[in-house]
Each structure stands twice: as C-alpha cells, then as structure tokens.
Fold:
Amino acid sequence: MVTQWPTADDDAERVPLTVVDRIKRYILINRLSPGDPMPTENELSDQLAVSRSRIREAMKTLSALDIVEVRHGYGTFVGAMSLTGLAESLAFRGMLTSHRDKHFLADLIDLRELLEVNWAPLVVERLDADTVAAMRALATTMVDLAAQGREFPVEDRQFHQLLVATSGNALVGQLLDVFWQVHSLVSETLGPASLLPETAQAHHAILDAIESRSAESLEAAIRRHYAPIRERMRRATDGL
Amino acid sequence: MVTQWPTADDDAERVPLTVVDRIKRYILINRLSPGDPMPTENELSDQLAVSRSRIREAMKTLSALDIVEVRHGYGTFVGAMSLTGLAESLAFRGMLTSHRDKHFLADLIDLRELLEVNWAPLVVERLDADTVAAMRALATTMVDLAAQGREFPVEDRQFHQLLVATSGNALVGQLLDVFWQVHSLVSETLGPASLLPETAQAHHAILDAIESRSAESLEAAIRRHYAPIRERMRRATDGL
DNA sequence: ACAAATTTGTACGTATGTATT
DNA sequence: AAATACATACGTACAAATTTG
Structure:
C-alpha cells in the first residue's frame, strides 16, 4: 500500500494516529469508493479498540468534510468528498466578517468572474445548441421573475453551472458552485436584492455573445453580468 | 424527551435548529471574532440544554471547519475559518481517487496555473524589490537542494505564497496555498519526485521575467514552471 | 518548582428514535 | 405490521493537559 506508515525513522517521535486518521487509513487501505458502506460504529469501536463516543466524534469530523456520510438508522458510507464543508465554512466566515471586512465578498466576486471569463473561448467553441437552449429558457424565466420583483436563485445557479460545465474541469465547476452558494447566503445579510432586472437581462446577453461565437463578446458579457452585482455590494457596504 | 429548545429570543423556527447551528448562532449573535473565547463545554451543555457529548460532537463538526478551535485542557475559541478543512478533504479525495481518476491532479494544476497567470500583469507592476530578493534567495536554495537530489517543499510553498500575495485577493492566496498542499500530498503517492532541477530553475526564470517588467514573459515563465510538473504527472499516470 | 483549579479528552452503560427489510 | 439494525442521546466517572497562584 502506498500509505506511508511508520518507517523505522520515527519510532522515537512516534505519536499515535488519531482515530480520524485511522478511519481514513481504513478507507484508503480497503480501497473503498464513495457510496461504499463503512463498518458500523460498534464494529469500528471494536476494531480500533476505542469507545463508541470516540468513534462518533471522529465520524462527526469526517462527516463535516464529506469523507463519510451518515444515514440515520441505516448506516455509514464513504462520502463523495464534495465541497460542502468549504461552503459551510466560507458562508459562516462571510456572515461573521462581511460587516467588518468588505473585501471578502469582493474577492469572491472577482474570483467568480475570473474563472468564468477564463473559459470563454472554450465555451464559445464547444457549448452545444441544446445547452444554450436550456440556458435561454432559464434566462427568460429570470427576466419574468425579475419583472415581478421576485428573485431567481434556482435559475441563476443552474445557469452558471451549465456555463462552466463546458470547461471540463470538474474542480472548477464545484468551486464555482460553492462560491455561488456563499455569495447567495452572505448577500442576503446585506438587505433586500436590487437591480434584479439588470441582472436577469445580463444572462440573455451572455447567451447572445455565445451565439455570436465571439470569445471577446462573451468575456465582456460576463463582466457586465457582474457589474450590477458589484454595484449592489457597493451600495450595501457604503451604508455602514 | 426532546426537551423543547428553550431560547426565548427566536421561535419562528419550525424544525428545531441543530446543536451546530445553535452554536453558530451564538457566535453570530454575540458578534465574536476569531480568537475570542467560547463558553466551556459544560456551560454550553447547560445553556443549550443538551448533554456534553452532544456539545462535543457539534464541536467536532465546527472544529473540522475551523469555525471553532479547541485547545485541550484550556478552552475553546472562535476559529479563523481558514481553508484547512478544504485541504484535508481535497487531499483525501486525491489520495483515494487519483489512481482511478487522473483528471483530479490535472484539474488542480490547471487551476493553480490559471490563477497565478491571471495576476501576472499586476505582479510585474507591483512586486517590490525586497520581495523579489527574498524570492530569489528561495529559488537559489531550491536549485542547491535539487542539485543534491533533495526536494524543496518549504521553499517552493513560500515562493508561491509571496508571488500571489501581490494580488491583494486574500481568498485566492488561501485557495492557492490549499491547492499547493493538496498537490504536494497527492503527488507523493505517485512515487519519488523527478525533474527537480528543471522545476527549481523555473523559479529563477519567473523572477527574471518579473525583473524584466514584462507581463507576457512572466505569464510564459509561470506556464513553463508547470511543464515539468505536468510531465511528471503524465509519467506517473501512464504507468498504470 | 509545585500544586490546585479549570477545561477538554476518553470510556462505558443504558435508553430511545429511526430507517430498512 | 413487525422485526431488525443502526444511529442518536444522556449521564457519570476518570484521565490528561494547560494555566495560574
């Protein structure tokens, strides 16, 4: 097995592995995949020779990182190792510090824009008509909702997921989705939404650019999409 | 049993908040900052009317996300909400799946390169001479170590931290550092390092480009820096 | 340097709630 | 509908670590 484990040189300094690490090692050694069942807490308690409470506390840690997934009354399974923990941590950080630290949301928006813009050439080249049609429907729904003064989080999130899916980089897709969630949660604390129609319309503009097959237009459209979002942020943080 | 959760100041909730959420709410409401002391486990157990084991399990979750920081025998404090949880989760995902899913490390490298390249113009414009000198010293150390066949993780990490610090985007700096850690950990499982001299020398080339004040050269130098890293990855995954 | 006090860490037993078959 | 397997919850006792006097 690849997992390096006490190789002669560290028996003086040898600190016993934590329960968390031993459970991780169990998953690694047994080559488990996401979704595979883990031993029950009682079995782990026996195998690792620690109490149930210790196992449970370790499972809470692993579960927070989505390394395991606990299904109440049924069992524990290897998790998908998604970025839900990052979302939770960042969202809390944003809610706690965005009053004092206006950079946080700004940095987040900059990152979102940068990552989306970066794949503009690829998107223009590869985005297929069906996906564009689906995105067009979402954009239309957004405009309708905005006209009624309603927000459109579900549509917006899915739109951006489809946009970045073309990149072929799964990690970026997951990261951007996390940033979307964090932005959505934190911006709620800044008061009611504003500039809804402008934001909704910006999605149509993005699709127009894609259909015009111009990477430059797409980049510009994406940047324009973030303008009203930044403007809203500016208004909110100015009023401190 | 369920002893109705008795905090009188908020009762609009249909489904009772989890212990984790109630502790988060405590931090939010009391406007605590990272480093501020939390109540002891016994106090929280009394205040929230749940057993200490429950409190401890919630603390494990919060601690995994660095929302609280627990110090044995001393107390619990509000955490820095760093990205350590992300690093742990991604590193484990990489170690578990990189054998089967070669995209993971590739996506990670692409992201690192993209983020560093993006701020090349700013770096060329703003990186001060002192920082460049410090980075030069690091690069020289790297070359020396490489010549002895030794690796240089500490120097490499610090080099890239200094490089991206210029961006002014703290979030990007933290993310890149996480990616560095994950890459470092996961690539260990691919076998011994290779192409060390090339990689070390690439850092000098980056500094040369910065001193030549050309954003284009810097971008090219950064991309060349990642070439031997990708090459090593290719060799490792080809041998599956 | 020592000891006491405080606080988190570990263990275990028992009872209860919950999802699946 | 019942049985089973499993996670959730509580309480107590003691161990280990850290600060403070």
